[in-house]
Write a structure and sequence with these properties.
The structure is a single chain. This protein has 30 helices and 30 strands. By secondary structure, the protein is of the alpha/beta class. Helix 3 packs parallel to helix 11, helix 4 packs across helix 5 and helix 17 packs across helix 19. The radius of gyration is 51 Å and the shape is extended. The two termini are 65 Å apart.
């Protein structure tokens, strides 16, 4: 067709002008462009599938896309596919040799035949070249890592999304305490992490997480601890092989009794040994590869009909040796992820990670006949505006078989036992406060609680909180017991002595109440020692303590210019001067260089601005301060060489400043007055240095027993205080230079008072434990709970919450922490920023005022220009009107003269002719019409009046203008259409 047009244009060149030839050529070019633009863009979709059957299904699905009316001849889809190899290396080579050679825009990937091996090699290969990959069978949580599988999305949800169903099931069944059993692999950690994230807003608590190593032959040791927990709802995630062993061991441990409930993952539910009453999940259409292929093709079609046509202009890589990054792949991936449609496997939508959302699960149950039956459905509902807002994503039947073959839903919790706990007030371990007027102990915060504690001596009830109380609450939840708290009757820890004048020695204080059966537990800062361990049982220490020294901090004063200390004043001046000198030289080099922007700006092929002095200054400061330079960079080679040298200078200056700043920071670090127990000022004290402890305390006895510390004991013997509170206050006031006491109390005081700190390392170490009756069956579970609290970091959290006060402390730093900059060190920097802000605000007002002044002048000029234009317009209109009127007058005068001359000629001719006689016809007509018998001679007709007018009946020649039955118009110039009167 184009050739015909060109031939026609050639044949007419002999008879057409040059302009016609150009028009013909232009028509040919336009036709060529139209023919090119009308061609559809070809999009090739690749696939790596498990069998030839699915390859054929994929080909048919792609061919069906081209028959859809939405394309409108703008796109054409082609398909190419390969069989996925079980060997990852071979699979990656097939992608390079067979798929990339076809320039595929996206790849649909399944799994090898007779295996569900993840298509990691395909994802890696395509992701390297920015080719989007749609997985239809890969459910591993590893594919959710966008840093590794950046171009991957899938039509199946990952295994970790089962946590969504579990949370919905627990909420509907009313269970809020669970035990989570998971494997120590990536899948187990992923589902645990997602469950914890979803369960926290629902207030579902995990009593304990039990991690097992997959591939073992016996899990009894991991499962036996479940008996000691309060929760009876067990969540299990495991592979099918591990689940078979776990279920067998759980039955042997008695964990399949009527009071237990098991909710397991998909793969675990398919185990051959799945017990009766277990609940599991099943992904609807999860393994239907044919439906997932159809959905994947529909997703591609939906995305490419929405993607910008410019994204298809850039072809994808054609071979693995291409190292260019295909930018259009990311645009196509974003369009794929934004797909929202209804497919054969349900509602299709994706997260930012490319994971499938809104998947449909069946809730499966193992009944008494050992058959898997569906008892519920999760997901698969339409949006609320379609079906109503009352539908929930989870629908479950009430006909469920539970462990033991019963149909009654378990309570989910073990029946608690009540234990009696004795304690005493000791800050920060136990804080005793008055009971509020309403008789309810208020929760201190979201993490700490307060419990009633009865005082038998005074007969009143108080509220107890603190380190030990939070620990007790957590242990009670893990070991499953209830507790009531009361205070020690005599307020003592317990010592072995005679009571009531008896000759036999007995224990008093909390020790005596525990031994006498008045309490089941001692929860207080009770020191573990051999004398007490002979009469009671101790758990593993919940805290290790020792003796420490409390002193006041000594800190150097910091000026506002502390941040300038790394360099001397001379160096700062030279650096500032160098910035401006380099900027000036850069400007001059770029100004006079034949290759600078000043020269290039004169040419027509560049739009770059010349490097002015302001831009050079900005460049020089930007390089020194390591900020981005987006414009105003030198162009000439000479200026760029200087720029590189200046960049090296700036790097050295900045690195030197940073290193020296760290050194000055260490020098400005707050210092303790002494270094520790071995400080010479303690070992060889002077009169001006005072230190002490509490009289009659265990600390005093410690110094008294230690031979190497006898000198210290004699020096502070007469200086000791009666209470720790008095000694701490003396240190705060400066009356006492050092106070030696138990480390938890001193750390607490140091955390609450920024002027105090502890010095040196601990000495005289000991441990604090929970006391129980001798041979108590609670000793082992409580001791295990204490160890678990240590392993989980809960004890460290208690230290930060109660002793170190965590981040609530207003102190800028602790003595044991690395030195850091404070406000006093960097106040000058903030003042400099504030000065810059003030300067910027003042300059913006000046700019606004200048702009406003300049705008008023421009407005005045504009008004004057408009007024002058209007004046010129009015003058021009008047001139035109006068010319028009003059022409009209001349026309009128010429017309009047012409009429007058014609009338004069007519009169002259009439006077020379014979007298006028009427014809009988006119006479009769005239007498009948008007009855007038005398007529004046007729006036001559105008020149324009012809016989055609009479023929049409417009006028009749009647003498004197007498009507003859038709309208007669006098020969008047006013009736001449060519004559106008002004």
């Amino acid at each position: 067709m184009v050739r015909q047009w060109f031939t026609m244009a050639t044949e007419h060149t002999a008879v057409k002008t040059y302009a016609d030839i150009l028009k013909s050529m232009l028509a040919v070019v336009l036709l060529l462009l139209m023919s090119v633009s009308a061609e559809p863009k070809v999009v090739t979709i690749g696939a790596s599938l498990s069998s030839e059957r699915y390859q054929h299904q994929f080909k048919l699905a792609v061919e069906a896309l081209n028959r859809r009316p939405q394309l409108q001849n703008s796109l054409q889809f082609n398909s190419t596919s390969i069989l996925m190899d079980g060997n990852p290396i071979r699979s990656a080579l097939d992608v390079c040799d067979k798929l990339l050679a076809e320039q595929v825009f996206t790849v649909v990937v399944s799994h090898p035949n007779s295996s569900f091996q993840a298509p990691i090699s395909v994802s890696y290969t395509c992701g390297y070249y920015n080719i989007p990959v749609i997985g239809i069978s890969a459910r591993d949580s590893a594919f959710s890592d966008i840093n590794v599988h950046k171009m991957f999305l899938r039509t199946v949800p990952p295994y970790s999304h089962q946590a969504d169903v579990w949370v919905a099931m627990l909420e509907q069944l009313g269970w809020y305490r669970v035990i989570f059993v998971y494997s120590a692999d990536e899948e187990g950690r992923a589902i645990l992490s997602r469950f914890q994230t979803l369960a926290e807003p629902k207030e579902i608590k995990i009593d304990r997480t039990i991690k097992y190593m997959p591939g073992q032959t016996n899990y009894t040791e991991d499962l036996v601890q479940i008996h000691n927990l309060e929760a009876r709802v067990i969540l299990l995630t495991a592979a099918t092989d591990d689940a078979e062993v776990l279920f067998s061991d759980a039955e042997s441990c008695g964990l399949m009794a009527e009071d237990f409930a098991w909710i397991v993952s998909e793969r675990a539910f398919n185990a051959a040994t799945t017990p009766i009453g277990v609940l599991g999940l099943h992904l609807v259409n999860g393994t239907d590869e044919e439906k997932h292929i159809s959905d994947a093709v529909d997703i591609v079609f939906d995305a490419f009909t929405r993607v910008s046509p410019s994204a298809l202009d850039s072809p994808p890589p054609s071979k693995c040796s291409d190292l260019d990054n295909w930018q259009s792949g990311e645009v196509i991936l974003a369009a794929l992820k934004s797909t929202k449609m209804s497919g054969q496997t349900g509602q299709l939508s994706f997260t930012e990670l490319g994971d499938r959302l809104d998947a449909m699960y069946e809730i499966m149950n193992m009944n008494t006949s050992r058959r898997q039956v569906a008892v519920g459905l999760y997901g698969g509902i339409q949006p609320p505006q379609v079906v109503g807002a009352d539908q929930e994503p989870l629908r479950m039947s009430k006909n469920i078989t539970w462990p033991g073959g019963v149909t009654v839903k378990p309570k989910g919790l073990r029946i608690k036992r009540n234990l009696t706990v004795v304690t005493l007030g000791e800050i920060p371990f136990v804080n005793v406060e008055k009971m509020p007027a309403d008789g309810i102990c208020k929760r201190l915060n979201a993490k700490s609680n307060s419990f009633p504690c009865y005082n038998f001596t005074s007969g009143t009830t108080h509220c107890c909180s603190g380190y030990c109380i939070d620990m007790l609450e957590n242990i009670a939840a893990n070991v499953s017991f209830n507790f009531t708290i009361h205070l020690s009757s005599d307020g003592l820890y317990g010592s072995f002595e005679r009571r009531n004048g008896s000759e036999s020695k007995q224990w008093n204080g909390m020790m005596g109440e525990l031994i006498d059966g008045k309490a089941d537990l001692i929860v207080a800062p009770l020191t573990i020692n051999p004398e007490r361990a002979a009469y009671i049982d101790f758990t593993k220490p919940f805290k290790y303590q020792g003796l420490n020294i409390l002193v006041r901090k000594t800190q150097k004063d910091s000026s506002l210019a502390s941040f300038l200390q790394p360099f001397q004043d001379t160096l700062w001046i030279l650096v500032g001067l160098s910035v401006h000198v380099v900027a000036l030289v850069l400007y001059l080099l770029d100004r006079f260089s034949p290759f600078g922007r000043f020269k290039l700006a004169k040419s027509e092929d560049t739009e770059e601005d010349a490097l002015n002095l302001s831009s050079a200054m900005w460049f020089s400061w930007g390089v020194l301060l390591n900020s981005g330079i987006g414009e105003g960079t030198p162009r000439s080679f000479s200026a760029r060489v200087l720029g590189m040298v200046w960049a090296g200078f700036a790097m050295i200056i900045v690195a030197s400043y940073t290193a020296n700043l760290a050194a000055f920071l260490v020098l400005d670090r707050p210092e303790a007055l002494i270094s520790g127990i071995d400080d010479p000022r303690l070992r060889n004290p002077t009169e001006n240095f005072r230190y002490a402890t509490v009289k009659g305390s265990a600390v005093e006895m410690y110094f008294k027993r230690q031979v190497e510390l006898s000198t210290m004991y004699r020096n502070m013997e007469d200086k000791n205080y009666h209470t720790a509170e008095d000694a701490i206050e003396a240190v705060r006031k400066g009356e006492l230079h050092a106070f030696i006491w138990d480390s938890p109390r001193l750390e607490y005081e140091a955390a609450n008072d920024c002027d105090l700190t502890t010095a040196g390392d601990l000495f005289g170490r000991s441990g604090l434990g929970i006391g129980l009756r001798k041979n108590s069956h609670w000793t082992h579970p409580v001791s295990l709970a204490v160890l678990e609290l240590h392993e989980s970091g809960f004890m460290e959290e208690l230290d930060n919450r109660w002793i170190l006060v965590d981040s609530k402390s207003q102190c800028p730093e602790g003595n044991s922490a690395p030195a850091t900059l404070g406000l006093t060190n960097m106040a000058g920097v903030f003042m400099m920023v504030a000065g810059g802000i003030v300067a910027g605000v003042l300059l913006i007002f000046i700019e606004i005022a200048y702009k406003r002044h300049r705008g008023l002048k421009e407005k005045e000029l504009e008004l004057a220009r408009n007024a002058a234009d209007r004046w010129r317009g009015n003058i021009e209109k008047r001139r035109t009107l006068r010319q028009t009127l003059q022409k009209q007058r001349e026309e009128q005068m010429r017309a009047a003269n012409a009429v007058g001359m014609k009338q004069q000629e007519a009169l002259t001719q009439g006077n020379s002719m014979t007298p006028y006689r009427r014809s009988p016809l006119l006479e009769g007509a005239g007498s009948n019409a008007t009855g007038v018998s005398h007529f004046s001679p007729p006036q001559p007709l105008p020149p324009h009046f012809t016989s055609s007018h009479s023929a049409r009946g417009h006028f009749a020649h009647s003498p004197g203008g007498v009507r003859t039955g038709r309208t007669v118009t006098w020969h008047n110039p006013a009736h001449n259409p060519d004559f106008s009167v002004i």
